[in-house]
Amino acid sequence: MAEAAGAGPRVPAPRFEYLMRLSAEFDAPQDVGETPLGRRRILLVRRGEFAGPALHGTLLPGGGDWVLVRRDGVAQLDIRFTLRTDEAALIYVHCTGLADLPPEVRRRIESGAEVAPSEYYFRTALAFETAAPRHVWLNRIVAVGVARRTALGMATDVFVLR
């Protein structure tokens, strides 16, 4: 017989543990234009860095964000890049997420103004892939990012979901 809702042991409430801050600068956007799915823009990483209690290093050029701005104005994010740790380990990262920036907020950010992240929604889910023995634990976690746009790119605080 199936367990009734609320019956049986409860799973522990999720908690978050700080992992790192990622920051990246992008090249000028490649604006593909209005496609059947929405407006497609490609943002390639020029340079970046990451730092946290257990990880630090650089984002390698060549990664990017294949953004699809939906008809409702919300951007669906498909972000892929490679991290190189200070000890030269490579870590592939794939993020999906949503960015909901009202047009006026987007204009302010693009003009170089500092805009509080509380004025918009920018969240990602991160998955890691590495063969580096010291970092294989990353292959077994789910992480979430709370991001903010900067005039030249983005900065994301990343948390492990425990």
Description of the structure:
With 162 residues, the protein is mainly β. The chain has a single domain (21-161), classed as Porin (Beta Barrel). It has one helix at 103-110, and strands at residues 16-26, 30-35, 38-51, 56-59, 64-69, 75-85, 90-100, 121-129, 143-149, 153-161. Strand 2 and strand 3 (38-51) form a beta hairpin.
Task: State the gist of this model.
By secondary structure, the chain is mainly beta. It has one helix and ten strands; from the N terminus they run βββββββαβββ. Strands 1, 2, 3, 4, 5, 6, 7, 8, 9 and 10 form a ten-stranded antiparallel beta sheet that branches.
Present the secondary structure layout.
Layout: E1 16-26, E2 30-35, E3 38-51, E4 56-59, E5 64-69, E6 75-85, E7 90-100, H1 103-110, E8 121-129, E9 143-149, E10 153-161
Antiparallel strand pairs: 1-3, 1-10, 2-3, 3-4, 3-5, 4-6, 5-6, 6-7, 7-8, 8-9, 9-10
Oligomerization state? single chain
Mean pLDDT: 94
Give the class-level CATH name. Answer: Mainly Beta
Strand content is over 45%
Unreliable spans: none
Q: What is the CATH topology?
A: Porin
The shape is globular
Task: From the alpha carbons, calculate the radius of gyration and give it in angstroms.
Answer: 18 Å
Number of helices: 1
Task: Give a count of the beta strands, DSSP E runs of length 2 or more.
Answer: 10
Structural class by SSE content: mainly beta
Order of helices and strands: EEEEEEEHEEE
